[in-house]
Design goal:
- It comes from Vitis rotundifolia (Muscadine grape).
- By secondary structure, the chain is α/β, with parallel strands linked by helices.
- The chain is built from 26 helices and 46 strands.
- It has a 21-stranded mixed beta sheet that branches. A five-stranded parallel beta sheet has the order 2-1-3-4-5, with helices on both faces. A five-stranded parallel beta sheet has the order 7-8-9-6-10, with helices on both faces.
Amino acid sequence: MADPSSSSFQRSYDVFLSFRGQDTRNSFTAYLYEELRTKGINTFIDDEKLERGDVISSTLVAAIENSKFSVIVLSENYANSRWCLEELVKILECMRTRGQRVHPIFYKVNPSHVRYQKGKFGQAFATHEEKKRNMERVPIWRDALTQVAYLSGWDSRDQHEPMLIKEIATYIWNELLSRSSNYAENLVGIESSIQEIKSLLFTESLDVRMVGIWGMGGIGKTTLAKSVYDQISHQFEACCFLEDVSDYLEKRGFPSLQEKFLSQLLGNKNLNRRRNISMLYSKRVLIVVDDVNNSKILEVLIGKHDWFGCGSRIIITTRDKFLLVRHGVDILYEVGKLNDDNALQLFSRFAFGNFHPIDDYVELSQCMMLYAQGLPLALEVLGSFLFGKSKHEWESQLARLKKFPNEVIQNVLQGSFDRLDAIEREIFLDIACFFQGHDKDYVMEILRSCGFFPEIGIRSLIEKSLIFVVENKLMMHNLLQRMGWEIVRQASPEEPGTRSRLWIHDDVNHVLKKNTGTEEVQGISIDLSSLEEINFTNETFARMNRLRLLRVYKSNSLMDFKREKCKVHFCRGFKFHCKELRYLYWYEYPLKSLPNDFNLKNLVDLNMPYSQIKQLWKGTKVLENLKFMNLKNSKFLTETPDFSRVTNLEELVLKGCISLYKVHPSLGDLNKLNFLSLKNCKMLKSLPSSICGLKCLEILILSGCSKFEELPENFGNLEMLKEFCADRTAITVLPSSFPLLRNLEILSFEGCKGPPPAFSWLLPRRSSNFSSPVLSPLSSFSSLKTLSLRACNISDGVTLDSLGFLSSLEDLDLSENNFVALPSNISRLSHLKMLGLENCKRLQALPELPTSICSIMACNCTSLETISNQSFGSLLMTVRLKEHIDCRINQDGLLVPALSAVVFGSRIPDWIRYQSSGSEVKAELPPNWFNSNFLGLALCVVTVPKLGLVSLAHFFDLFWRSCTLFCSTSNCASSSFDVYTYPNHLKGKVESDHLWLVYVPLPRFINWNQFTHIMASFRITTFMRLNAIKECGIGLVYVNEEVNYSIFSPPNESSVVLQEIHEGPSGSRYSNIDGSESENSDYYSADEGEPITPLL
């Protein structure tokens, strides 16, 4: 039973019951209340102890105002009570002002007696009129009774009361359900989530099930839970929706919270725990506990599964995922932000009263979308605030939001922050102000050095919906980041020098110029792009003895090359006083070396890209906590420093240090070093032999070191090396120990041409002895997944057979070489997915390929044209062997091809039945086109270089080939499916037309029988936009299941038939890639009118 004191806790009701207690409390009204509650209708009934005095309480007023319906039980003595009459007046006021639905029940009274105040009602008013204090109210009461008697309701006379009660409850339920449906229709973007939650609840099952809905504040958890509750509550014996329990708990405490819970669910305030559990055990209940932030709430209210009757469902909403896991909730559902379309609709609904913005406000609305980032709370609050305001006011609000968050949004979001412990707050603010978008493992190293225990802290932030991880990058919602910024600002609104973190240009400038920084400052982020001049003095940092993070960067470093650089000045004898510094990032550090007193023992990351450093330091520096050093593109750096006292360094990046010619032997002392990049160090010729002692080194990059000639003899001792890239180096000989690198996964020698035959040390010369295979260093690399020998001057004198021993190989790039044929044993590479053969102009044929192959790039392989029938046949053989490949759908919902190939050619083969010029092709499908032998679609496109391209000597381009399939039924219903393809890099000029072939298995969960037409729309996007689509086509791929599966079988024994539906007797003619036809082929077509069956 709902308690009147719950108005602040339970903010709204479905029904308010008004009745005369002495007439019907323990009879008709009691049974009606029970029936309403059983149907899940949230009903307010007052406590008999409240009926005191002449004026109804504020609690009852609030309950009436916040009810959707009022049901008035007009019994014989109803008019005797001033209390009841005042309730009636208030109810009719809410009917007029709030649109409340009001229905009278004439319980054993004549409606005309109520209308005209006769009989018992007349006697009651005669008594009221005898009292002078009632004289002003009597006319109002009479008018109220007259009004209510004219409303639609029920007359209990000559009615079977149980049936009447069921009729009333059913009517109200149906009305509420109708309202709920209309309400749900206005909840933009929520319907799919409602259906997902309902499917997770699976109310048909008799088990007891708990479902947790979690997500950040303002994401719509309560709205979702309420919508689901409204739709399914009628299926349960008893229902309870406890909204905002955390707030109520803070105000009232656990005893009161438990009392309210039991009152709503059981109509019983008896706090005998054992008895109430036994009562719950016998009932099928629906419970929603909203906004839980304390595990004790669940322990007290929800307890265990066996507290509740069969088929019960409990829904819990929270910002903290861990609370759900700890309590043993069966299913977790994370609420995501709205997509762009739904976000714009929701915002427009509040801002314009429509589901789309007014024309003049489209751009401003998009700015609001960017700010809100799909958060429903922000969209509703900002939309409501901007309703009816001018464009100038919108622009003013946008400018204000850049500096100050909306107070309502801030308060809701900050609730999550306020529940964190002290260390978690520090971690959150560090991420919000400095590390948004940074690698998780890297940030954890920095935070660990600060004593913040990030393993548990970051997990806690993730579980509390404050941050999330994407591709191992720490991310947070834009508004949560701004919430963090505002918390820092509010700590000292007037003086930024006493804030914990500084990142806003004006604040940083103020502190640095006026030297107002204090020990409160823990982090500073300085954007040089916003400054014309800056001075660093010893006084600048003198009082910032707690500074942990210092970042000096340029936000426009990639965009504004003409702008004058910021003038950075250092005082003479500049010293770093910041002994607590853990993170130092300084873009374009202007000095030739670090200060002499640079002894930051706590420093973890020294990051100085594009610096003016010539020598980092002289002698030795004790930096035992340093793990990351990045001096990339420091073009004046000539040699590395002595690393002997930097014993914990894990990553060293010297990429682009074009003057670097000497690496200090102490590099070999870095026993924990796992990443070393010397890419494009053009003056570097060798490495010290001590490098071979780096037992933890996993990645070594020497690409672009054009003068680098020779690796140390003991290079093979790098037993943990997984990636070695030596592209465009002068290496001509590998050390004899090289085959010992058995953990190598990535190996690249792209552009290492050398004198012919350059790669005899890696790929052996052809032998006249064919009785036994010739082994090479490659045969030892059983873990190798990626191998690039692009542009390595490989010719006929070198055998490629050793490639067949690379059993783990997934990506092989042999582009821009001069060989004529690939080895036949390439078919043994059962994991090979990507094969690059671009610009292999002497290549004459493609061998049998492994069924794992997904992508083949054979652009500008011009010799393939002369025998293209065999080459293209090889690709089709690969398609045959993919009979059992199921359709894959990636995380973006795109169909993933089983095979994608780009080869030299100018015409679509004739076996591709449906063809069209341009970028779209339509297919009218015959009857019975879809049967058990159908595998998928073959999609084909011919691309041509635009005029003038052939004359270009060189260019680098990026191809994105994409396709959308539009499938329609005979009644014009349609569906669309996007096909995913990998981007392809092309180097050099495109010689002529090329053909792109894609084989796409179709998902079996779709009823393809219903479709009668398919249209394919192709797009080719390149960075330089130098290609166009000449023609395109669709083919249907079928399988013949009754023949041999051997991959070495001749074509006419193939297990797959590519079968096309042609008009006319095209017979068994097979089309070459250039459009010519062959008479001996296993590719057939059937007359269009005939049913499709396997060809034997």
